[in-house]
Amino acid sequence: MFLLKKVIQLRESSHPDHEKPFLEHLEDLRAMITRIVITLLISMVVCFAFQKQLMEVLRRPVEQVWITQLDAKLPKSSTEIPRPLNVDIWESAKRLEHAASGLDDAQREVFFKSIGDADLAFHARSVALLRALLDVPENGRTAFLDGLDLRADLRKQVEVLAKTMPGTDLEQRGNLKMMSALKPTETFMLSMKLSFYAGIVLAFPLLLLFILQFVLPGLHRREKHVLWPAMAVGFGLFMGGVLFAYFGVLPRALEFFYEWSGSLGVSNDWRIGEYISFAMQFTLLFGLAFELPVVVMVFVKLGMLTYETMSSTRSYAIVAIFIAAAVLTPTPDIMTLLLMALPMIVLYEICIWLAWLDRRNNRLDEEREAREREERLNQLLPPGCDEEDALGSVNVDARKDGDDRA
């Protein structure tokens, strides 16, 4: 309620020639909320039509986590393994080995020859040998490989892979890629939730416009021209925060949680609904956090913040920013923490500069108004008469007029 009263005071101060009763301000608030709801509904319908593409975009960070984890465990140097190996080749080799698992030796040879790719067949054989080798105790692995009488290049690759442990299970990526839905209605409600979050991003410029029109009504033509660049800056900051979170922070957070679960022996079978909610809220939170300059300038206009207050509490604000970053990105990785904290600190410093600039502009406006008022008064005064005499004569004439009426 206090904030609403402050907003109403700002509305009246921005357009003093058209003061309104309190109920009319509430009517304007109702109109703003109605516009926001209608805009969100339209944007949700548009985003719902592209839900498959949106789902692919949001699931890409999860796949990137899996690729990063697997790529780190695959040997890269040609001196370590005889044939090139990457994530795609290793995944294809696991699928081929799984398809050939039910065949006898002769059938397997025919199957691998029919593939037409000798390198892929080589890696598929190494998958089967690696899976068997990992089930053998470490002190018996050398004897196991000696007994198989393998080719030198195949044995060398299996020994190297046994040290890096890239994983041989076919379902590991599938569980993380496809995820799971445990309720019949979960996927439909997930599509609605995804459309809602994407609708906020799509309609953010209009939402910001409606809010500014309510907070700052009755703008003059010059002020309206300034409003559009301000909206562009606000939307740019919002999208910058969303993209920064999506490409920079979200993959690192997912990687941390993936590694943490693996270190405890817990399978990463994430639910699709929980992941989408986490990813969308995470990115939107960064987008809204990057709106700090816009929010601070509104508070400055409301009189709730000043340049002196912000500059004197800078150290407390920096500590609060680091605490917030630690809560939102609960990882021991200092880089992940700094990826959120440092941009917020830079934005806070920009806010202080904007508050100082606003204070200076207000002082310049007051000085200019005082000079203009003094100039108008000097033009009205007769020659040789100062301001006190003019005010005294005005009071005398006012008393005489009162006596005459009496």
State the gist of this model.
The protein is built from 17 helices and no strands. The protein is mainly α and 406 residues long.
Order of helices and strands: HHHHHHHHHHHHHHHHH
Judging from the principal axes of the Cα atoms, what is the shape?
elongated
Class by helix and strand content? Answer: mainly alpha
Arithmetic mean of pLDDT: 77
Using DSSP, what is the number of strands?
0
- What's the gyration radius in Å? 34 Å
Q: Beta-sheet strand percentage? A: under 5%
Low-confidence runs? none
Instruction: Please tell me the total number of domains.
Output: 2
- How helix-rich are the residues, as a percent range? over 70%
Task: Please give the alpha-carbon distance between the first and last residues.
Answer: 49 Å
Record keyword descriptors for this entry.
mainly alpha; 2 domains; elongated
Structure description:
The chain has 406 residues and is an all-alpha fold. The chain has two domains: 28-61 and 185-364, no CATH class; 75-165, no CATH class. 79% of the residues lie in helices and 0% in strands. The mean pLDDT is 77.
Can you lay out the helices and strands and say which pair or pack?
Layout: H1 2-14, H2 22-48, H3 51-73, H4 87-99, H5 105-115, H6 118-134, H7 141-148, H8 152-164, H9 171-178, H10 186-215, H11 221-263, H12 272-289, H13 292-302, H14 307-312, H15 314-328, H16 334-380, H17 387-405
Helix pairs in contact: 2-10, 3-11, 4-6, 6-8, 10-11, 10-12, 11-12, 13-16, 15-16
